[in-house]
Amino acid sequence: MSSRKQRERQMLESIYSMIALVFILVTCIELCDAATVVDVYRLIQYDISGAQFGSRFATLNHHAGSLHLPPGVDLSRTVVIIPVRELNITLVKEFIAQRKPLGGLLFLLPQMLNFENRDPTSESKYQIHEKKLTNNVLVELERLLIYANIPYPVYFAFEDDDIDAVLADVKRNDASGQPATATTGSYKLVVSAPEPKRIASPAITNIQGWLPGLKADGDPNQLPTIAIVASYDTFGTAPALSVGSDSNGSGIVALLEIARLFSLLYSNPKTRGRYNLLFGLTSGGPYNYNGTHKWLRSFDQRLRESIDYAICLNSIGSWDNKLWIHVSKPPENALIKQIFEGFSTVAEELGIEVSLKHKKINISNPRVAWEHEQFSKLRVTAATLTGLSAPPELLERTGGLSDSRHFVNEDAIVRSIKLVAESIARHVYGYQGKNIQIFADDTSLAVNAPYIRSWLDLLSQTPRVAPFLSKNDPFVMALKKELEDHTHEVNVQHEVLDGMFTIYDSTKAKLNIYQVASVTFDLLLLLVLGSYLIILFTFLVITTRGLDDLISLFRRPPSRKVKAA
User: Fold this and answer.
1) Distances in Å between the alpha carbon of 295 and those of 204, 205, 211, 298?
2) Which of 203, 393, 432, 434 has the fewest CB atoms within 10 Å, counting from its CB?
């Protein structure tokens, strides 16, 4: 009897060991299915006065497909992978305009757009040509995506060897004319992300600093003020990639360098001008320059009336040989004429062409095209210096995918800084019309190119979409500290973005790419495993208990009546 129990115990132990082994094998197979994990960046989701724009979903769990699928194929459970290098913008327009059912879109960006790629100078002529083509495609793609309401997830990722290998396999499968499904197998793209939530009370932060002028003894009058202003935040198709190297990283760099140059002059009473200089780094630029509006409203009337003029710096890092001065007051205005003549004189010395462009504003219209228009609405003379000949549409050219470090010309920024600093200095010191270089090269007052490059590199690696920047964000604190190094009475103003703009979170996630087998393969594997388990179980019972015990397992037990008899 004891030997029989021992055999039964041995048989049970063998069965448990077998089951454990099967679980281990299945687990290993499942782990080996994962092909790669990549960072992905979600298309912006936002509302304007209740109207919905951008991608409305974040979770992704569908099979991968490519543009090599034949027309008419059902793509409702397929994520179409589209390299920007191969982008067919017409096809994407059809997807969006006709609201074709898709599982999702994944756009692959060239590595040169990755802001961790820090060597923009090591480019061949082919790459430079490719940059221009890529830039044009991205501008058109962003314009399409940013104003669309898309009812499925849209993500961006950077090309690399792993994802390129996956795409090559997907293309080969799609070339057969049959999309990836549960029955055919292929790759599965999975993003586990929470439902996007509205950002409540999004903060915008303005930073200002002063360089006070030298007031003559006994002069009761307030010194006039010149304001130099630049908006520092961005808005783009993918908020986590919106670094805005030109718009408006170039303007921020220029403002900081101009503040540094004038701090050298104003630190000595003998060279301090009889103008106050006000430096303003404003937020909410893409949203009708909402931060500038609130910053100016915080000024008392006396301060506003003291502003002689304001110069706003915007996108001055990608022009070739011409800059534009946009104004709201007519060119015949005496002060506008004086400002333009001063800039034109310096521009001619630097070999730069400067043109004046007038656009009248509607005070009752909340939409403003340029930052200086917020000043003009309060009857403060102001102008915008930019490389753009025409104002962009709302939320366009505000630091999107096409605005990276690779598309910015450092020399253009240096020349812009020389133009602005020299023009303001001649105005401050009364040297208009005189060929006197205050910030001459090879002097202690020369423009510092390494300083410009270091800040441009930092800005080109820092996404700056305002609702995602907290009040004490390290970047905001870095700007404040830098302004404190060059100016006085640095003040930080915290405001809330106007309610007509609603921004949603969930901007970055991890994409898991799994290589999955077809259902046919799974069924076949299940059949093989089942047969193996039955044979193994039969063998164990026969060897430990005998054939009679095996047969008794399947024999119908006697009824209660038979037992009683």
Assistant:
1) 10, 9, 18, 5
2) 434
